[in-house]
Structures are given as C-alpha cells and as structure tokens.
C-alpha cells in the first residue's frame, strides 16, 4: 500500500486551496489537494511538512489530522492521510510549475470525483471545517 499525505488550507474568505497535477504526472491535469507520498522511515506529519515546502514553498507550523481515506486503483492500493493546515509561514507559490486555485465548497466538491455515497459526507465535513476552524490569514489569489 502506498501512503500519501494531503493538506487542506482554508483562507480567511473560506476558500480552499487546490493544485493541478503537472503534464508529466499520472492523472495529469486533474485537481487535488497539495501533498505527496510518505517516504520510507518518515511519519505523516514530516511528509506533509516536506511536501508543502517542496511544492508550494510554505513551512507548516501547525496541522491537525482530519481523515484517512483508503482507495483502491486497478493497479495499486493507496492510503490518503488528509490534514488541516491550521498555521503556516511563507508565501504560497506553485514551485513545481503547477497551477494553484482557491475554490469554494461547491467548486471543491465538483472538482473531485467523489462516489455518490461520499459526496454528502465530504460536504458535511467541509461545512463543519468552514464554520468552526481557524482559517489561515493568507488572502492570496491565483
């Protein structure tokens, strides 16, 4: 099983950050939460911090685990470890040439191909986060 981490950043307007996969990556052009694979000997938080520094140039100061999502592809098994980024330093940039975009709740759900039975659960989770969580102070637009 391949273990990967993803981070959810919510700005002060209640928008969520997504990144577009590069041309030479699997599933090129699709949108996803920033993140990447956990390396051998690395824990999930360390992987999240490394990936965010490499991909979007920020230092994660505080993050909280949200959910673990197992996923079965035809050729591999994945475990996605999703975190809420509560505080960071630095400016968000697409350091690997990827497009970055802030989206609202409805756009977020429409960008991803959630199974029908998961769409309402994802929506409920986002509603809870958007109402009750501290948002990052960045107000960047891409």
From TrEMBL:
Needed cofactors: Mg(2+)
Domain of life, source organism: Bacteria
Molecular function terms, GO-annotated: 8-oxo-7,8-dihydrodeoxyguanosine triphosphate pyrophosphatase activity; 8-oxo-7,8-dihydroguanosine triphosphate pyrophosphatase activity; 8-oxo-dGDP phosphatase activity; 8-oxo-GDP phosphatase activity; metal ion binding
InterPro entries: MutT-like (IPR047127), Nudix_hydrolase (IPR020476), NUDIX_hydrolase-like_dom_sf (IPR015797), NUDIX_hydrolase_CS (IPR020084), NUDIX_hydrolase_dom (IPR000086)
Root EC class: hydrolase
Catalytic activities: 8-oxo-dGTP + H2O = 8-oxo-dGMP + diphosphate + H(+); 8-oxo-GTP + H2O = 8-oxo-GMP + diphosphate + H(+)
Every Nudix hydrolase domain range: 1-127
EC number assigned by the record: 3.6.1.55
Alphabetic keyword roster: DNA damage, DNA repair, DNA replication, Hydrolase, Magnesium, Metal-binding, Mutator protein
GO biological process: DNA repair; DNA replication
Pfam families per the UniProt record, alphabetical: NUDIX (PF00293)
Similarity section: Belongs to the Nudix hydrolase family.
Protein name: 8-oxo-dGTP diphosphatase
Organism for this UniProt entry: Legionella erythra
């Amino acid at each position: 099983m391949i273990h990967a981490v993803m981070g959810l950043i919510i700005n002060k307007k209640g928008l969520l950050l997504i990144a577009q996969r590069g041309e030479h990556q699997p599933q090129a052009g699709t949108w996803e939460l920033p993140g990447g694979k956990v390396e051998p000997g690395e824990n999930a938080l360390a992987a999240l911090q490394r990936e965010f520094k490499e991909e979007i140039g920020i230092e994660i100061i505080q993050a909280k685990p949200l959910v673990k999502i197992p996923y079965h592809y035809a050729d591999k098994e994945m475990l996605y470890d999703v975190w809420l980024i509560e505080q960071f330093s630095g400016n968000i940039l697409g350091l690997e040439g990827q497009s970055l975009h802030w989206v609202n709740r409805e756009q977020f759900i429409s960008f991803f191909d959630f199974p029908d039975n998961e769409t309402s659960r994802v929506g409920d989770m986002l509603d809870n986060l958007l109402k009750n969580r501290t948002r990052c102070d960045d107000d960047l637009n891409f």
